[in-house]
Amino acid sequence: MSIENIDSILHEERLFQPSAEFVKSASINSLENLKDLHEQAEQDYEGFWAKLGHDEISWQTPFSNVLDDSRAPHYQWFSDGKTNVSYNCLDRHLESRDNNNAIIFEGENGDIKTLTYHELYSQVCCFANAMKARGIGKGDRVVIYMPMTPEAVVAMQACARIGAIHSVVFGGFSAESLKDRIEDAGAKMLITADGGHRGGKIIELKQAADKALAGGCASIETVIVFKRTGHDVGFNPDKDIWWHDAIKDMDNNCEPEWVEAEHPLFLLYTSGSTGKPKGIQHSTAGYLLGAILTMKWVFDIKDDDIYWCTADVGWITGHTYVAYGPLAVGSTVLIYEGAPTIPDCGRFWDICERHKVSIFYTAPTAIRALMKQGDEFPAKYDLSSIRLLGTVGEPINPEAWIWYHKIIGGERCPIVDTWWQTETGAHMIAPIPGAVATKPGSCTLPLPGIMADVVDEAGNSITEANKGGFLVIKKPWPFMLRTIWGDDERYINTYWPMFDGKYYLAGDSARRDSDGYFWIMGRIDDVLNVSGHRLGTMEIESALVAHPRVAEAAVVGRPDEIKGEAIFAYVVLKGDRPEDGIDKKLTKELRTWVSEQIGPIAKPDDIRYADNLPKTRSGKIMRRLLRTIAQGHEITQDTSTLENESILQQLQGKR
Ligand code: PRX
After folding, report:
1. What does the pLDDT read at residue 8?
2. Coil, helix or strand for 339?
3. CA angle (345, 347, 351) in 5-degree steps
4. How confident is the model at residue 10, as a pLDDT?
5. pLDDT tens digits for 289-310?
6. What is the CA radius of gyration of the chain?
7. What pairs with residue 510 in β-bridges?
8. N or C, where is the chain less crowded by C-beta within 10 Å?
9. Mean pLDDT, the chain, as a whole number?
């Protein structure tokens, strides 16, 4: 990996202080308080985390080991303690919050449902008993392929309750992707639904699940099907059971399974630069601590907040900031099933007004898409209940930040731009809203106890302002991933390949400005960020070459106004290149093909046909060149090492 191309181009100087009103009620309300926390972590790193671990988590058996690095980089935290995540999210609130809303749900079709803590507890217990009745126990893997409904959270919490390891697969992934994930995890149970509502359409979840199972997935013994849409779906009586039948006669109490702190809570598959998606494995206690702390530190959560994170439970954001974090701190989480554009582009703001949302957390891509629709949509709604805004998933461009600040936040709400990853489990670099002034486009400063740094190839800290380098974390933290499921070696090679394996390599480049603020500059590997979601270029290339007419493919990202990055594919066909490089029918077919292989999010936006790809004499594809062409820029790089320089004209669409 090299950082020769990391140039810093963004220079944003505006500074936004938190309002006096916000500071008044904030739990960390000054830089001094924040500095105190940082100092505690620096002076006694383990003591700092041990205290938080004891204070924030309800333990069945308290821990005495804090950090065990004997198997580094497979670090262990609080390893001799025992607890249960579902107990921490539900049982411990029953006395004080029994009747408070845990979940407010709104379906795309307008259904509204609320679940108090007591009701959610009963549903989780009931469903946990139903899973147990079908032979699921501690350590078994359960794949969840559900629409964004409270039942998805019930299923996740029920797994946690009995010590089963869930692996949620985003409902937008195809049957093929579902199958790969089920097989890699060796899952015994699949929990799905007949379908879900999104974008005015029905997402055919059961149909995809049936297709996945028809193609393999021998480990699956039971499929529990939640009835959401009520439309006709296939039903295999040997394996399938309706959710409502499975919970019939089940007890609505279920003793939590007390598991070791390091017991895997879940796997979540994410894309890397090589091979198939990897099953990121998270722990029980360390992960829970990250979710709780960041709800308090970054979202400054209060008892009366109505908190809405728009992420789907299929992504890490939907795990930490929908299914676990908000419940672990006893707050009220809003879940919305559908798209922001149904019935029109005011839906998010309508929901905020009607449910009096006070904390709103979404992705820059959604902000940009809604900003494009104009100010008249948000102007129709009363957004005065909102007190804090957040963003996640990709850098936010200053224009979108300012719009979010002015039009949605009424210039009174801090914006927390949160940098983190599937692997980090929870926020890592983000402003503490009552203490840290924000700058549009910067995720500001690392959280207390998070030893983030920007380093050069030798691992030396880059102290020069605005000079780009590798983003690393220099010490293990409790909510970090533990390994890649079934592939310890890939874990070591992916995250600890440099700096003598001492620093966690995030895979992002970053710079720090003269105030020490972090600015994320992009990925250093072949991973794209499309609408805040990670996609490996290799994955899309493999899908393309699996098509009978494709001989070779190379995929790169091209900047896109709404999605952040769009997918640009160069394709070499078996046989002749289409005349003038255009074949609309085949292009459509290939796009559908990729959608079936991976999911609609991986559909290439552009496909360009060529007789060959630009390769060095050693046969390496020159991706940098392909990126330049995809951006429509002139090639200024040295192309003398190219085996086939003449191909450039064609790749540029010139002939
Ligand atoms: O490149 C960074 C970008 O998203 C990557 C992590 O993707 P994923 O694991 O899918 O998790 C997304 C939700 C946490 C990072 O390596 N990223 C995430 N948040 C930000 C970001 N880039 C800039 N600013 C952010 N706030």
Report:
1. 53
2. coil
3. 155
4. 56
5. 999 999 999 999 999 999 999 9
6. 24
7. 469, 520
8. C
9. 95
Q: Is 534 left (phi over 0), alpha (psi -120 to 50) or beta?
A: beta
Atom in ligand 1 nearest the alpha carbon of residue 506: 16
Q: How many A from CA of 579 to the centre of ligand 1?
A: 40
Residues 416, 392: Cα–Cα separation, whole Å: 9
Q: Which helix (H) or strand (E) holds 208?
A: helix 205-214
- Tens-digit pLDDT profile for residues 340-358: 999 999 999 999 999 999 9
Q: What is the Å distance from ligand 1's center to 481 Cα?
A: 15
E strand or H helix that includes residue 402: helix 398-403
Contacting residues for 607 by C-beta, under 8 A, at least 6 apart: 569, 570, 571, 587, 590, 591
Ligand 1 probe mutation, 319, 418, 420, 504, most atoms within 8 A of CB: 420
CA-to-CA distance for 648 and 26, rounded, in angstroms?
57
Q: Would the pLDDT of 275 be above 80?
A: no
Beta strands 359-362 and 388-392 are: parallel
Residue 619 has pLDDT above 90, yes or no: no
Q: Per the omega criterion (within 30 degrees of 0), is the bond before 446 cis?
A: no
State in Å: Cα 308 to ligand 1 middle: 19
192 strand-pairing partners: 145, 225
Residues with CB under 6 A from ligand 1: 270, 316-317, 392-395, 417-422, 443, 506-508, 520, 523, 529, 533-534
Output 621 or 59, whichever has higher pLDDT.
Answer: 59
Whole-number Å distance, alpha carbon 137 to ligand 1 midpoint, is 33
Contact present, 361 and 299 (Cβ < 8 Å): yes
Amino acid at 307: Y
Of all protein residues, whose CA lies closest to atom 4 belonging to ligand 1?
393
Residues in a beta bridge with 535: 528
The helix/strand/coil state of 266 is strand
- Residue 476 CA to ligand 1 center (angstroms) comes to 19
Q: Tokens 């009103």 appear where?
A: 21
Pairing between strand 469-473 and 483-484?
Answer: unpaired
**Is 557 strand, coil or helix?**
strand
- What is the per-residue pLDDT for 413? 98
pLDDT at 520 over 70: yes
What does the alpha-carbon distance between residue 311 and residue 292 come to, in Å, rounded to a whole number? 18
For residue 346, the Cα-to-chain-centroid distance in whole angstroms is 24
Minimum CA distance residue for ligand 1 atom 13: 393
pLDDT tens track for 209-253: 999 999 999 999 999 999 999 999 999 999 999 999 999 999 999
Alpha helices of 571-621 — where are they, by DSSP H?
A: 584-597
Has residue 24 got a pLDDT over 70? yes
Q: Do residues 84 and 161 lie in contact, with contact meaning Cβ atoms separated by under 8 Å?
A: yes
Identify whether the C-beta of residue 174 lies closer than 8 Å to the C-beta of residue 198: no
Q: CA angle, corner 261, sides to 256 and 266, nearest 5?
A: 75
| Atom nearest to 422 CA in ligand 1 | 9
Residue in this structure with the two tokens 């803590």, named with its chain if needed: 117
Instruction: Give the distance (Å) from ligand 1 centre to CA of residue 640.
Output: 36
pLDDT at 643 over 70: yes
Q: How far is CA 528 from CA 56, 180, 518, 552, 602, in A?
A: 36, 20, 21, 19, 10
Cis omega (within 30 of 0) on the bond before 73?
yes
Please, is 349 exposed, middle or buried when counting C-beta atoms within 10 Å of its C-beta (0-12, 13-18, 19+)? buried
